[in-house]
TrEMBL record:
It is a multi-pass membrane protein. This is CBN-PTR-12 protein. It comes from the Eukaryota. The keyword Glycoprotein applies. Its main location: membrane. The lineage of its organism: Eukaryota, Metazoa, Ecdysozoa, Nematoda, Chromadorea. InterPro entries: Patched_domain-protein. Keywords: Cell membrane, Glycoprotein, Membrane, Transmembrane, Transmembrane helix. The gene is Cbn-ptr-12. It is found in: Cell membrane.
Length: 308
């Protein structure tokens, strides 16, 4: 473990056996006459006498090792139950969650070689989050697909208009794809924090396009496409801008801190707000106009056949 990349070596390792061996050697040297030949032979072979462990743990300079060791006495003998060792690694790359995951997997790879013999296991404070990183892509696309499916179903229930539902769902899918693409281009890794912010942003991406789609659907179809879009944007356009600006201002307050969690959340939410406004107020009306034009052309072409 001390030879892995980024390790501090023995300087960053807390391993009680090293102090225990030094303690036992010093005890044998000072009380050579009382130590016994058996104990001397153990020390000479580089081993330790576990029966000296209680004395070692009561020694003033070694009292802190009590938190690392568990043992019990059985038939006037000391039995070592379990102990733990701490290792330290360093590196600027450890600011990235995927790098921490790689380091943890290296530890586990080494420990797995001896786990059956010694019953070893690895614990890391970040382990619960690092283990989630491998599932992040799957969780991300499942959340996105579930959101799209629910949005399409709800739009269909309230609007009952297939073209409108298709356009609205496509816009939301485009916003999700844009958020992921921009985060990737800016060098943001898909870690648990970004995943949480991404799920929240997916919920926000549904809001404004849904309002635009619903107001367009409920507008009078007797009016032309220009009038319908004018009514829709005049009713929802400015409130949508107000909502996006107010949300962005609230989120930007987190930028005053240098915490990674806050910066990741701000980047994700601001990206979401910009894409939502652009898609809902520019692309969505354009698509409605294009679909209306195509539908009108199809009706014009089929009308002569129907009259015959």
């Amino acid at each position: 473990m001390e030879h892995l990349n980024g390790s501090w070596g023995a300087l960053g390792t807390n391993y009680f056996i090293r102090d225990f061996v030094d303690f036992q050697k010093a005890m044998v040297e000072e009380e050579e006459a009382e130590g016994g030949e058996e104990e001397k032979s153990i020390v000479k072979r580089g081993g330790v006498d576990v029966n000296n462990l209680p004395m070692f743990l009561e020694w003033p300079e070694y009292l802190f090792w009590k938190g690392f060791v568990q043992y019990h006495s059985e038939s006037n003998k000391t039995v070592l139950d379990r102990f733990f060792i701490t290792f330290a690694i360093h590196g600027n790359n450890l600011q990235s969650w995927p790098a921490r995951g790689d380091a943890l997997r290296e530890w586990r790879k080494v420990v797995d070689k001896y786990s059956s013999e010694f019953g070893l296991s690895v614990f890391s404070d970040d382990g619960i989050y690092v283990d989630l990183i491998e599932n992040m892509p799957t969780d991300a696309w499942q959340s996105a697909v579930a959101t799209l499916a629910c949005m399409a179903f709800i739009c269909f229930v309230f609007m009952y208009d297939v073209p409108t539902v298709i356009v609205a769902t496509s816009i939301i899918a485009s916003i999700m794809t844009g958020i992921l693409g921009i985060l990737s281009l800016t060098g943001t890794d898909l870690d648990p924090i970004v995943m949480s912010a991404l799920i929240i942003s997916i919920g926000f991406s549904v809001d404004i396009p849904a309002h635009i789609s619903y107001h367009y659907h409920t507008s009078s179809s007797e009016n032309g496409i220009r009038e319908r879009l004018h009514q829709t944007l005049s009713s929802v356009g400015f409130p949508a801008l107000q909502a996006s600006v107010s949300t962005s201002l609230c989120v930007l307050s987190l930028k005053f801190t240098s915490i990674y969690m806050s910066n990741a959340f701000v980047k994700t939410m601001i990206t979401c707000m910009i894409l939502c406004v652009f898609h809902a107020l520019v692309l969505l009306p354009s698509l409605f106009a294009i679909f209306h034009r195509l539908f009108s052309l199809c009706c014009v072409k089929t009308s002569p056949i129907e009259t015959k």
